[in-house]
Structure formats: structure tokens, C-alpha cells
Recover the amino acids of this structure.
């Protein structure tokens, strides 16, 4: 019997009691159920909007009744996928039929969040808004201020907070398994031009807002916001100073938005988040690493691992854990629903998540609506994460250190 | 004509490559990336090896309740039902559980053996799927690559790309427009051995199926759903024209499904549409080669 098989056997034989004690709150929740499906409108039919439609199809509690996009062809393509949904060319036209839906998901370009977000809050709708929530600090604060008086749920799509593996890792992090933080590191490498093709110049300009230096927050803002937030959520701390630089390493196509960036976000205790993102290489993909004096946690959205230091105390449950070898290091695989899977002898089948991160973010949004619970990520948390992303972008563009002041992270009023 | 730009990515267990010819290189790259992203999206939807795929969700839950499908996925499953019927069950997407037993799937499915498409209930008015009972599970491996290529070709055309070639591991592909100067088609040899058919393709799709590609436990990756083993030497090639228009194009998916059926049967089935060309290799000899019109754009394949 191999070591892992022996451990699996022992886990079954022991009934997983040791694991259960530690992991009891980490079981995958059942999807929310509602007697009447929540009628939902989706604003923005770009790549993210289409991905959202795909995940919503898995949720029995949801009925997509309206689609909205200013681009007729995108709207037509989306309606082919959801032919029962009504289509609208603007959020104003959508809200003229506000009685037809209860919840709205906003997946427009970042600089086009503020108007539909405020209008939908004002109309009393439940709102799910993609992150970053805005491309200026003023807009981010205006959205957060409006959400404070919202009648419905207002949730921000910072998806690590809903991801079962990230939630599991956070319990380890906060239970002292990692101990003192040594360093925080993240990257998002993906070899792609970040350019969206279109059939004519006007549409191409509209679709390629990410490559417009007046509108884009760059890789350090659009991608970075989700990854900085992992550390902010885990440590409950925000950076006090941000340094950054960027360059074009591959895509010399006339763009003025960097395809490779390096950002350092410094905390007041002199720990740092070291962040790199690139469109010129794909090696390593997207991950975050939290180095601690007792253990290091590596998170890669669908998978997670914990690497213990040799001198760290051993927990009783570790003998049952699933492990993977990484060159010279052996990592404990972080598995959501571990206790249940181990009791069924299926621990290894739990490696990786059964759904995309986006699914869990949406599931949490609908659970908040149905169970009348606060959202997993509030408007204020979304605003603070967005402000950090905007300031990181400022640091990269200017090439100078940017100080994060308390008032930058404070809400309006 | 502009120089060709080549891009590639990995999906569905193979390497997809797109060759795009367009005067604006930045636009060609963006369009090629969008086509590859579309293939990756279909991988995410249809992979039975990935617990987070929509098909895994259907396999897990569709025996409990009807699950809504979008128009494209419904069209794909309808095509599978059509080919299953017309091929006398030689093409059968319910073979997944048998594949698990033989170690050809890493992820356990719901169990049971191939049960036939009758156990998959498609409701056209509600556009839903329901599985007749627990234990039925669907594997679209025989058709997913082709369908993803069809959708990628849609993306290229929507981006204004008229000349491109896109393939998945060379065994399935789509040719749009011309390879070089006006009038030179994309030339594809549909096999590696002497006598393999060579086709000049313009606005066409093709697929080649052979059991020799993947072996586990002495069993080849194309199983005869009706029982028995498929001769490892067999190879089938199918090609047809693309259909452009408002309906969902399925030329490459049809080629995939029919080439799978042909390699199981060892001959061209009578139910195969006349608009599709085909050839089959059995006993080391290519035979039963049936050509169709070289250019079928607009003629339709189904």
C-alpha cells in the first residue's frame, strides 16, 4: 500500500475525526434554492458577460430574463444563447422595464460601471458588480456611498472571497498555521495581446478600452485588483506605499498600455506584496503565495497547497492529508469538502474545484438575496480594493512611489 | 495576400493551431486569439475530465431534473442524436462509463455502460436535457473538437477574417477561404500512409479518426458501442463544405461524428449525408473513397 493510499485508508478507518475538527466549516455549501427563480438581467455581453451567462445556467434559483449591451451584434449573439431573454441597448431602456427583473449583474467595461450601478441601486434592485468597481477613485466612492443605502443586496465580484479553496486556506492562515508573514507574492502571466477583434474601427475602439490609456487601469489594476485583494482579505491590511514599473516586451503594435508590469505594495510593517503581470509569457499562469515562518500557502484559483517548514509543529490531521511533490518541496493539497470526501474514500477526487471561481461568486450573491444575508464582498470592501488598484496603476504609469493615505481608503461622508 | 500569422494553444488534450491571413497583423492576432479563446471556452463546457465543466454538471445532475441548454449546446446534442440514429448506434456519446471502466477516463462518471441516446431526453420546446436515470453519462469526445472548430470559424468570420486554417491536433480542421494567392486552396493529406486521400479544401471542414491514437490496458480509444473491438489499423476520413448563415454551422462536428462512426463500422454507412466526402482504410488499404463537390460553401452538410 502506498503512503497516500495508507493515509486514505486510515482516514476512512478513523472516520476523519481529526480532519473534521479542523475543517468542519469548510464543506461546500449546497446551491441556494428559491421557490420562485430570481429574475435576472445581465448588463454587458462581452467575454465576462458571456461567462456569467454560462455559470448562471447552473443555478436553479436563477432565471435570466433580460440582456443589455450597446453593441447590437454582441447582443444578438447573446440572445442566440438565451433566446427567452428580452434585449435592451442601454441600462436606461432596461430600467424602463424594472418590474420585469429583481437582480442585475453588471459586466460592462470598468469605466462604464458607475452609471448602471447607481441607477440599479436607485431602482431597488439586487446588484452584482464586477471588480474593479470603477476606474476613478471618485466613481468608486460614489458607488460605495450609493450602495450603503441600497434596498437590495449589493455585492462586488472579488472572487477569491467566495472561492472554497481560498476560504479554506484563509482558515489555515488565520489559525496561525502560517505564523508570521515573511513575504507575499503573486503573478498573472498570460500570453495574449489583450486586444479584442471587431469588424469596424468604431467597435474596435469601444471593445479595446483596456488598451486605451485614458480608460484602462492596465494589468496592475484590472488583474491586480483580484490578487491584491487576496492578501488584503487574509491580513485585513492595506498597503501604505506602492511602487511600480511597466514596459512593452512583446506587443509592439502601437499600444501605450504596458504588456508587462511589476508592482510592489508595501505595508506599514515593511512586509511587501510583490506582483508581476505580463501579456508576453504564460509560464506559471496566475497564483498567489503567502510565505510564513511556519508554512507557505500557494493558491492558484482552482487549486491550493500548503508547504510546512520542517521545524513547524505537526497537526494530528496532517497524516491523513493528500500531498503533492513540487521539486524539493512536498505540499499538502488544500481540498474543500475534505472531511466528507475522506469518509467516502474519495479524497483525491476533491483536488481542484468542481466549479469555476465565478460560479461561487454568483452563488454567494444569490444566497445573500434568498437568505437575506450580507454579501460576501461589500461595496466598501470593493471600493478599497479598487482604490488600491487605481493607485497601483498610478505608480506604474508615473514610475514614482504613490502613498496610500487613510482618506484614500475612507468612504464618502 | 498578407503573410500568415500562426497562433496555438492547448485544449481538449491536444494542440490547436490557427493560421490567419490578413493585412492588419494586430487584427489578425486579435482574431486568432479570439478563435482560440472560443475553443478554450468549449473545452471548459464539454470536458468530461474537468469537474467544473458544464457537461460534468449535466452528467451529475440531469437525472435529477431537466437542465436548460443554450442554443449552441442544444444544436450539438441534437446533432449527436441525429448521427447516433443514422449510424445505427456506431456513434454513441453515452459510451463514457465504458471508457472509465477501461481506464480511458481519469474522472469517474456516473457508472453503467453505454445505454444509447434514447436515455438522453432532449426537450426542443423548453430546450432542456434530462438523463433517463442515474448512471447515464455523456461523453462528447467524438464530436467536441469539431464543434469547437466550427465555433472558432464563426469567430474568425465575425472578425472579418476570410482566409484562415484552424485545426485540433491535425486530425480535425476547418479551412476558410484560400491558402495563398486567390484560387489556391488549403491542401490537406488525410492520413500519414501511402494512399491516404489528399483534399484541396476551400470553406470546408474535415476529420480523421483512428483507434491507434490512444491505448490504455490494451484497448484503443475508439470503442464499438455495440460491443467488440475496433481494428487498430482502421482509419476514416470525412470532409464536407461549411454552411454559412444564420443557423448554427456544424460541418466540422459532423465530420468528427461521422468519422468516428465510420471507423467503428469499417465502411461508409448508408445514412451518411450525400454531401459529405469520405474514405476508409481497412486491412492496410484505403477504399470506399467517395468524393463530393470540392466547393460546397452554402450547400450545407446535414
Amino acid at each position: 500500500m502506498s503512503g497516500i493510499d495508507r493515509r486514505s485508508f486510515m482516514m476512512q478507518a478513523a472516520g476523519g475525526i481529526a480532519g473534521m475538527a479542523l475543517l468542519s466549516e469548510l464543506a461546500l455549501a449546497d446551491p441556494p434554492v428559491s421557490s420562485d427563480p430570481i429574475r435576472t438581467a445581465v448588463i454587458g455581453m462581452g467575454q465576462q458577460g458571456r461567462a456569467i451567462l454560462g455559470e448562471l445556467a447552473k443555478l436553479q434559483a436563477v432565471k435570466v430574463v433580460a440582456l443589455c449591451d450597446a453593441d447590437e451584434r454582441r447582443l444578438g449573439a447573446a440572445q442566440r444563447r438565451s433566446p427567452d431573454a428580452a434585449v435592451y441597448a442601454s441600462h436606461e431602456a432596461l430600467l424602463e422595464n424594472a418590474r420585469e427583473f429583481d437582480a442585475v449583474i453588471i459586466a460592462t467595461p470598468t469605466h462604464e460601471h458607475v452609471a448602471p450601478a447607481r441607477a440599479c441601486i436607485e431602482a431597488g434592485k439586487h446588484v452584482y458588480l464586477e471588480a474593479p468597481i470603477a476606474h476613478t477613485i471618485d466613481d468608486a466612492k460614489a458607488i460605495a456611498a450609493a450602495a450603503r443605502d441600497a434596498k437590495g443586496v449589493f455585492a462586488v465580484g472579488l472572487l477569491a472571497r467566495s472561492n472554497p479553496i481560498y476560504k479554506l486556506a484563509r482558515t489555515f492562515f488565520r489559525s496561525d498555521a502560517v505564523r508570521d508573514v515573511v513575504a507575499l507574492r503573486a503573478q498573472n502571466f498570460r500570453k495574449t495581446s489583450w486586444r479584442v477583434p471587431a469588424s469596424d474601427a468604431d467597435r474596435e475602439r469601444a471593445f479595446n478600452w483596456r488598451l486605451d490609456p485614458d480608460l484602462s487601469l492596465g494589468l496592475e489594476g484590472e488583474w491586480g485588483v483580484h490578487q491584491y485583494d487576496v492578501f488584503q482579505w487574509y491580513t485585513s491590511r492595506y498597503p501604505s506605499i506602492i511602487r511600480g514599473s511597466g514596459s512593452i516586451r512583446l506587443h509592439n503594435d502601437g499600444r501605450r498600455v504596458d504588456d508587462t508590469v511589476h508592482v510592489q505594495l508595501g505595508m506599514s510593517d515593511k512586509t511587501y506584496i510583490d506582483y508581476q503581470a505580463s501579456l508576453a509569457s504564460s509560464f506559471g499562469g496566475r497564483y498567489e503565495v503567502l510565505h510564513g515562518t511556519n508554512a507557505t500557502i500557494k493558491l492558484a484559483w482552482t487549486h491550493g497547497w500548503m508547504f510546512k517548514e520542517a521545524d513547524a509543529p505537526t497537526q494530528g490531521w496532517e497524516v491523513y492529508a493528500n500531498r503533492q511533490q513540487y521539486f524539493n518541496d512536498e505540499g499538502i493539497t488544500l481540498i474543500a469538502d475534505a472531511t466528507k470526501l475522506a469518509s467516502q474514500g474519495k479524497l483525491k477526487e476533491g483536488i481542484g474545484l468542481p466549479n469555476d471561481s465565478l460560479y461561487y461568486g454568483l452563488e454567494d450573491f444569490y444566497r445573500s438575496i434568498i437568505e437575506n444575508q450580507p454579501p460576501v464582498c461589500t461595496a466598501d470592501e470593493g471600493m478599497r480594493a479598487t482604490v488600491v488598484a487605481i493607485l497601483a496603476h498610478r505608480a506604474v504609469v508615473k514610475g514614482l512611489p504613490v502613498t496610500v493615505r487613510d482618506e484614500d481608503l475612507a468612504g464618502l461622508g | 495576400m498578407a503573410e500568415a500569422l500562426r497562433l496555438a494553444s492547448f485544449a481538449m488534450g491536444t494542440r490547436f493551431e490557427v493560421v490567419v491571413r490578413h493585412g492588419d497583423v494586430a487584427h489578425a492576432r486579435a482574431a486568432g486569439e479570439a478563435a482560440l479563446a472560443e475553443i478554450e471556452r468549449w473545452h471548459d463546457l464539454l470536458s468530461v475530465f474537468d469537474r467544473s465543466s458544464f457537461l460534468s454538471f449535466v452528467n451529475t445532475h440531469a437525472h435529477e431534473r431537466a437542465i436548460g441548454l443554450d442554443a449552441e449546446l442544444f444544436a450539438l446534442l441534437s446533432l449527436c442524436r441525429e448521427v447516433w440514429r443514422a449510424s445505427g448506434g456506431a456513434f454513441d456519446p453515452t459510451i463514457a462509463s465504458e471508457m472509465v471502466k477501461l481506464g480511458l477516463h481519469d474522472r469517474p462518471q456516473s457508472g453503467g455502460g453505454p445505454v444509447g441516446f434514447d436515455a438522453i431526453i432532449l426537450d426542443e420546446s423548453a430546450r432542456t436535457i434530462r438523463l433517463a436515470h442515474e448512471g447515464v453519462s455523456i461523453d462528447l469526445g467524438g464530436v467536441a473538437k469539431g464543434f469547437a472548430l466550427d465555433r472558432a470559424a464563426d469567430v474568425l468570420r465575425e472578425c472579418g477574417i476570410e482566409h484562415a486554417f484552424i485545426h485540433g491536433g491535425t486530425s480535425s480542421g476547418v479551412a476558410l477561404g484560400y491558402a495563398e494567392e486567390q484560387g489556391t486552396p488549403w491542401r490537406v493529406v488525410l492520413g500519414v500512409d501511402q494512399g491516404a486521400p489528399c483534399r484541396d479544401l476551400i470553406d470546408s471542414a474535415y476529420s480523421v479518426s483512428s483507434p491507434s491514437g490512444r491505448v490504455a490496458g490494451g484497448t484503443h480509444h475508439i470503442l464499438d458501442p455495440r460491443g467488440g473491438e475496433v481494428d487498430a489499423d482502421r482509419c476514416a476520413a470525412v470532409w464536407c463544405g461549411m454552411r454559412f448563415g444564420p443557423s448554427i454551422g456544424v460541418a466540422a462536428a459532423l465530420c468528427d461524428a461521422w468519422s468516428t462512426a465510420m471507423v467503428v463500422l469499417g465502411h461508409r454507412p448508408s445514412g451518411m449525408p450525400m454531401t459529405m466526402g469520405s474514405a476508409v482504410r481497412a486491412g492496410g488499404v484505403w477504399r470506399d473513397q467517395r468524393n463530393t463537390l470540392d466547393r460546397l460553401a452554402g450547400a450545407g452538410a446535414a
